[in-house]
Design brief:
The structure holds 2 protein chains of 2 kinds.
Chain A: H1 2-21, H2 25-48, H3 54-65, E1 75-77, E2 80-82, E3 86-91, E4 98-101, H4 102-110, E5 116-121, E6 128-129, E7 133-136, E8 139-154, E9 157-180, E10 186-204
Parallel strand pairs in A: 3-10
Antiparallel strand pairs in A: 1-2, 3-4, 5-8, 6-8, 7-8, 8-9, 9-10
Chain B: H1 2-15, H2 18-43, H3 48-53, H4 58-66, H5 81-87, H6 101-116, E1 127-137, E2 140-152, E3 158-166, H7 196-200, H8 218-227, E4 231-243, E5 249-256, E6 265-273, H9 276-287
Classes of the chains: A alpha+beta, B alpha+beta.
Amino acid sequence: MKTLYKVLLVAIYIFVPIISYAQSIDDLIARRAQQKVKQMTNYIEYMANKEESLDDRKEYRTLALNLFIGHGEPYTLNDATRKGVYMQITSKYRKKPAERLMKDYFTGLINMRYDKVVIESTDIKDIKVSELKKVGDNEFECTCTFVQAFCGYQDGRPIYKDITKKRVTCHIFGEETVKVQPNGDIKTTYEYIVLLGDVEALETK
Amino acid sequence: MTNILSYHVCDMEKNKFPYMRRIYLCYVLLLACCTTINAQMIGSMINIEQERSRISLVDEFMKRFNGTEDRPDITSKVKDYEDKRYLALFNGKMFKSFEDSLFIAAKDFVNRVCQDSIILHYSDTTWFAKATCRGSFKNKEVSFVLYLTVEARTSDMFKWVINRAEGEIFRLVPSTFSDKVMIGPDSHETKFMNLKHITNGKDDYISYYMNKDHTVDQTTVFLTLVYNGLLKIDYVEDLEFFFYQVPTYIFSIKEFNRNDSNNDGWLINSLRKVSEQEKEKELMLLYQ
């Protein structure tokens, strides 16, 4: 019930600003990408939150994976097959990045050995979006940036903290929808679906 | 906070309720305390001011260069806005003082950009990426450079393409020097039956068998190795973007990741004054 309530809240949080802020298709897509990214960061916060039950946290993992292209499983994009979406972490102290499949990264978040974990993310208004790049008929690509701060507690004391700057590729697919107007006219519009792709993380201790 | 506090204290004195004043002071102090603790607990981990100033995307660098987006603390209301706007795009650590020759060069560059009203576009053919890659070749870790440019697919669609590859492994240099490794002068009489020794012997002697003017095209070697599954790219170790749009200048940007500085993200890290002919030659090398 608690989970459903949160999901409902997140849904309201997504759609209300979209309607009021969207001024053009590009803006609409950019807003939608921001919302998707915020939704992901919210799920990450819930997944890591030890105050939630394990079952709930697993459910957030599923919900979070659904935001990604291929739902975290192998997928095909631009005629190329990929093993799944990746989380790539580079540190300013270590040039070689660590890379994990998103589904494994999320499992790791659920099973962290801290008593308490606090994750804080950028507000939706501070998520930056790159210019929309067209990749096909009603297909676009852009990148969103956000920051995530992590604090792990043991025996009530913070023992690990990091701040990570992240960039995520957003794949946008326009789907044609046909609406019959009250006067009988048929109007074709596009519904834009945003699916998240690989995430690049730049760690700052 | 101080103003609010003093205003209410004066008000209380007028009313001549000293005990009320004390209670009120305690309340205000408690409120201030709670606000501070709350800020430390919740909003303190992410430095949002820095994030807003940071140039997090290459697109964002272009917007700030073109003046379609401002750094929050450098708006048109600021004195010497144009100079400050452009200079904020540089890695500040490049300059040691205002007299530093690099700083003077940067100011000259800014003047040139303003004078010619230079605008950067994603679709320009006068910028490219230099990606230093780490990979593996025959189970050995190798490093090489790929140069990439933006190529139009249609009038409104683009993609990144590899223009050139450079690296020690693509030069095909023989492991030892010899001036005797060759195809013998009378080999034609035996229908070149000894050609098989080229590939049965030491593989890396191959260039000794070529004509003396032959140069190895490193990009083709890169393609061949990848095509045959012999070279794997593991990750991009370093990335720089070079811009040739400003007359007589070439500059490059690189991403910085700093903890507490507004001078962060994609910043100009090198600036060179070069003749237009020289620039053209360099770009030709990339596109040929």
